[in-house]
């Protein structure tokens, strides 16, 4: 049965094709930073999958530097479109370097650091009722699959690529009952037993009480790297660069590790 998602916006080797932190709606809402923004604050476009570590990093950065951090969380490509439309903001943190490369080609970025790895896994409800053990199982008849929107979110684009490169995209697509505009939506759907499986980032399933993860064979998987960088249209270059360096520092990476990420660089994910 198709799942009605009225609220969802439709839009391995490594291969790359705050004072208070303000959190905007993940898929829509107030997308443009205020023109009266205090010079002691920063506006950050951040992929929704990094919300937990970035919330904590923003608070610590303000505590140490007196500069508040305002986040807009959404899918990586959705954020890219917002930046192109508004030409405002200070920092971009997408879920994969692909989106940062696109932003760089458009002249939107001018300084970059690499933070951590995004490792895809298969998320299943607790108990794994559909007995999913591999990517191939997503193509089995009767399996309900929920994937990310490839036009909005990094995990959606990666999921489609992963399935295509393993030759099962068309068969899995027949089983797709819904697509989400953020990876966090996928986690919610699986935790509510609205699907048998989804492709998500490993860190989001760590210590979950309602979801289990099924590892993807390393020879079939595609690992992504999370970048962070300053935006060329920012008028707060020094503060923005300071924040980027803070995120990529030992303090920042320790927070990422706390939330289940493997930080960059790591030999496990290097060719």
Question: Would you give an account of this structure?
Answer:
- There is one protein chain.
- 30% of the residues lie in helices and 23% in strands.
- β2, α1 (51-65) and β3 (68-74) form a beta-alpha-beta unit.
- The protein has a seven-stranded mixed beta sheet.
- The N and C termini lie far apart (42 Å).
- The protein has two domains: 22-118 and 226-269, D-Maltodextrin-Binding Protein, domain 2; 120-214, Periplasmic binding protein-like II (D-Maltodextrin-Binding Protein, domain 2, 3-Layer(aba) Sandwich).
- 47% of the residues are buried.
- It is an alpha/beta fold and 271 residues long.
Beta fraction: 15-25%
Mean pLDDT: 88
Corresponding CATH superfamily of the largest domain = Periplasmic binding protein-like II
Can you write the helix and strand succession as a string? EEHEHEHEEEHHEHEEEHHE
Helicity, as a percent range: 25-40%
From the spread of the alpha carbons, the general shape counts as globular
Biggest pleated-sheet summary? 7 strands, mixed
Report the span from N to C terminus: 42 Å
Q: What's the total number of strands?
A: 12
